[in-house]
Amino acid sequence: MTVTFKVNGTPKTVDVADDTPLLWILRDHLELKGTKFGCGVGQCGACTVHINGVATRSCQRKASTLANADIKTIEGLSPDGEHPLQRAWEELDVPQCGYCQAGQLMSASALLAKTPKPTDADIDIAMNGNICRCTTYLRIRAAIHRASQMAGAGA
Amino acid sequence: MTTSLNPSRLNRRNFFKVSSIVGGGIMFAAYIDTLDAATAWAAEPAGEFAPNAFIKIFPDGVVQIVAKNPEIGQGVKNMLPMIIADELDVEWKSVKVEQGLFDMRNFQAQGAGGSTATPTNWMPMRQVGAAARAMLVTAAANTWKVPETECSTSAGVVIHTSGKKLKYSELCAAAATVTAPDLKTVKLKDPKDFKIIGTSQHGVDNHLIVTGKPLYGIDMVLPGMLYACFHKCPVFGGKVVSANVDEIKAMPGIKHAFVVDGLTPVVLNSLLSGVAIVGDSWWQVQTARKKLNVTWDEGPTATQSSAGFEAKSVELSKQPAQRSLRKDGDFDATMKSAAKTAEGAYFYPFISHAPLEPQNTTAQFKDGKLEIWSPTQQPQSGSRQVAAALGMQESDLTIHISRSGGGFGRRLSNDYMIEAAYIATKIPQPVKLLWTREDDIQHDFYRPAGWHYFSGGVDAAGKLVAWRDHFVSFGEGNNFVASANLSQTEFPAGFVPNLSLDVSVMPLGVPTGAMRAPGSNGIAFAIQSFIDELALAAGKDPVQFRLDLLANAQPAPAPVAPPAGAPGAGGRGGGGGPRFDAARARSVVEAVAEKSGWGKTKLPKGTGMGVAFHFSHQGYFAEVVQATVAKDGALKVDKVWVVGDIGSQIINPIHAENQCQGAALDGIAAALGQEITIENGRTKNTNFNTFPLLRIKQSCPVEVSFVKSAGDPTGLGEPALPPVIPALCNAIFAATGKRIRSMPLSKHDLSWT
User: Among all residues of chain B, which has the CA nearest to that of A43?
Assistant: First the structure.
């Protein structure tokens, strides 16, 4: 099937089998490698993107459901890598292997968009679907608070 | 668990070279010798350089330093270049780090395993940096026609006592003609002058990571590249009898489908039998795979199961042990006269590594040469194994080390690299092999399960006087399967006068391998938990009991000759042995008691603290866990205190803290709910829904501190993990009175009244 949607503000059209997950459309058809494959069953969150502003596991969204969707990936989180979360992630040196962090950032940015001053409990709820195998959770939590502070200061 | 670079070998024959780079820069290459390669070196034409070198200095002032080892999240891509940069005396901000190609002639050992990168490279990397600095000083002195003793360096500049200055980048041409110093005698910095070592330097790839740039093995793309999957028998070592490959080939996007015979006899960590499917996109390949219909010859492992292993272990535990590993004093007689005795049967299950980036490798075969891009922890054995499995020469292979999305020991096995290499040689296009998560969980080299049947006794003064461990493990005869061994020096050996370490083994067809703190990650749970049982029997505080035990070093017994073919303790150095320093162990136990407020905090019922320590990978770690168990049995880990002693330097403190926090939480993850179950010779678990990893809600504060001691620094990827599991179990006992003797905790009812 042919399907057209927007990725990071740019219209894209792909011709794929209708059950092709968005994850593989992004990675292998559009060459956007930032969105990661971890489990393929919506358990780990490494493939998290925003669809119409909602944090979504891209491995679970088939091509057939994507017509006119507005998709944002890690490559589009900010024009210059300067989203408060990206800055906070670097400032607090969050990553170990780093593989899950794109998904973490996309879940965290959806959280901050809705809840600019999240509590630890808010973070637990929003981030519990994102696995970090290196278990950098303490820094992920701290970096979300830090980004919230930066965004607040900048506003 | 990995080939290590023995520093003593470095001095045999090594040298340092310098040359100009086209365009005006300078390159420093250290040829660090190996015994094996000694003759190859001599044949190297003078003045000819391999494409890799440790240091390149460019006219614009950029200093490029190679990180030679694979980065798997342990921070080695910062750590090794930081050591070079400090001795070179440049500013870290002027350094550009580049991942080294697999090239043993330039870089020698390039593995990520055994927490060996720090101890084996500390001195060589310092020497590399210092030698380059010395040559730049000579070059400046020659230019100015002044004695070298009147020259110093700072931040990439040579400074004369007169105030004259020359930047390193201005000295490129002059330095290229300087005779290289002997690495062995080159002058090193006084540690008090370190400017980079001991400072926190953030991950060099952080910006690429947070902006989603291609970086990992899975992100590799080659022009015209196809995608592959490799479908193996669910039973380990099973073989394809027949498969509907013609039907598969006709499916959309599929370019190739073929049966792979695999090696005969079966080699579990090499090329196994299976079906390769190659196509235009990975999704099409996976879609075709669902239509695959294979008749398997499942082979002998099909009769094995976790339940069968458990039954066999119980049977073996009731029989005399098959062999003795160590016998000090008279255990049986001492038990009869002991004031108090205890017994405990401990078990830990198979678990999977599950690094988050599924196994993958990209390979291209052209004109008899094979080029490979792989997230591997051990390119050296990968190269050897690919060549052996494919009947190729290693000189026809090029291996690019990709950043790994986690390792944990899984990528010490290069099975996926061999599969990709084989597939690439059978098709005209370059190919990326990518496993599913199910492939990964079901075809791992698991942390082996193990059973410890302990008994022990204390005397009237509460001193541990008798200890026996009947260790039931996997292997045949005198051999253990990979990572399933017990060291003759495992603590408390050497600290109990009457001690017997006995072993019985059963055969295993399930692949096993090193997993973060191999051996230690299970053994420490069993031993440090049973020590708690004996502390209770002795009526002693668990911290004091351990300190007393560590103060009770026994005269060294006559060495027990290891049985023929028995592997030793491996690189991990777990437990005791000649390298074990009881004073360092005591110091971390004392420090963690102090940090955690041990014995000083009144805790409510249902909340408890537990302590444990372990020595592995040359690192001493003591940890205290505070845990709360609700009446209904719900467990919450409140906090972990970690104190480590890894020598004189914490090279990169911000990464050191991250590694220790990660190791502690990784251990908690394993303890909470991880177990691989084998049924009919195959793994029953499939994905993260049946093999749970830790989630943010389950994480708890982990406070990390270090005790500094004399001696060069040692590694940190692993040794902080083992003590956390027994510390947690001991905390659960303190909270509930329930003694945990088997993993995982999800199988225990922790409720109390």
Answer: B688
Which residue in this structure is represented by tokens 């461990």? Answer: B469
- Pairwise CB contact (< 8 Å): B282 & A44: no
B-interface mutation test, from A58, A73, A133, A136, most B Cβ less than 10 A away: A133
Other CB atoms within 10 Å distance of the CB of residue A11: 9
| Element of type H or E holding B141 | helix B117-144
CA distance B520 to B576: 12
Average pLDDT over residues A129-151: 98
Contact A24 B662 (CB under 8 A): no
Q: Which residues of A touch B360 (CB under 8 A)?
A: none
Contacting residues of B for A33, CB less than 8 Å apart: 212-214, 218-219, 221
Please count the CA atoms within 13 angstroms of the CA of B630 that sit on its side-chain side: 4
Q: Supply the mean pLDDT for chain B.
A: 90
Residue A113 has pLDDT above 60, yes or no: yes
Buried b (16+ CB within 10 A) or exposed e, B24-45: ebbbbbbbbbbeebeeeeeeee
Choose the closest CB to B693 out of A33, A73, A131: A131
Residues of chain B contacting residue A98, judged by C-beta atoms under 8 Å apart = 73, 203, 205-206, 209, 215, 403, 405
- Residue B346 has phi, psi (to 5 degrees) of -110, 150
Confidence bin at B21 (pLDDT 50/70/90)? low
Among candidate residues B270, B286, B302, B283, the one with its CA nearest the CA of residue B231: B286
ipTM over 0.90: yes
A133·B406 Cβ contact <8 A: yes
Q: Are B264 and B253 in contact (CB under 8 A)?
A: no
Q: Judging by beta carbons within 10 Å of its beta carbon (0-12, 13-18, 19+), is residue B46 exposed, middle or buried?
A: exposed
B597 interfaces chain A, CB cutoff of 8 Å: no
Instruction: Mark yes or no for CB contact A97/B215 under 8 Å.
Output: no
Chain A residues within an 8 Å CB radius of B209: 89, 95, 98, 101-102
Question: Residue B101: which pLDDT band, with cuts at 50, 70 and 90?
Answer: confident
* Residue in A32, A34, A41 closest to B689 by CB: A41
Phi first, then psi: give them for residue B444, nearest 5 degrees. Answer: -95, 175
What CA–CA distance (Å, rounded) separates B617 from B520?
10
**How many Cα atoms occupy the beta-carbon half-sphere of B502 within 13 Å?**
19
Query: How far apart (Å, rounded) are the C-alpha atoms in residues B378 and B383?
Result: 9
Distance of residue A63 Cα from the nearest chain B Cα, in angstroms: 12
Q: How many CB atoms lie within 10 A of CB B189?
A: 16
Q: Is B218 on the interface with A (CB under 8 A)?
A: yes
> pTM (2 decimals)?
0.93
* B661: its two tokens: 């926090």
Instruction: For residue B499, give the nearest of B472, B466, B470, B452 by alpha carbon.
Output: B466
Q: Decide if B436 touches A, using CB distance below 8 A.
A: yes
Q: How far is B434 from chain A (nearest CA, A)?
A: 10
Is B356 close to A97, i.e. CB distance below 8 A?
A: yes
Mode of pairing for the β-strands spanning B464-476 and B498-506: parallel
Give the C-alpha separation, B319 to B29, whole Å: 59
Contacts of B104 (CB under 8 A, 6+ apart): B34, B37, B110, B380
- How many Å is the Cα radius of gyration of chain B? 27
Between chains, do A75 and B221 touch, taking CB under 8 Å as contact? no
Q: How many CB atoms lie within 10 A of CB B328?
A: 20
* Calculated CA dihedral for residues A72, A75, A81, A84, nearest 10 degrees: 30
Distance CA B740, CA B728 (A): 10
Weakest-pLDDT range from A16-20, B40-44, B286-290, B504-508: B40-44
Nearest Cα residue to B609 out of B720, B471, B729: B729
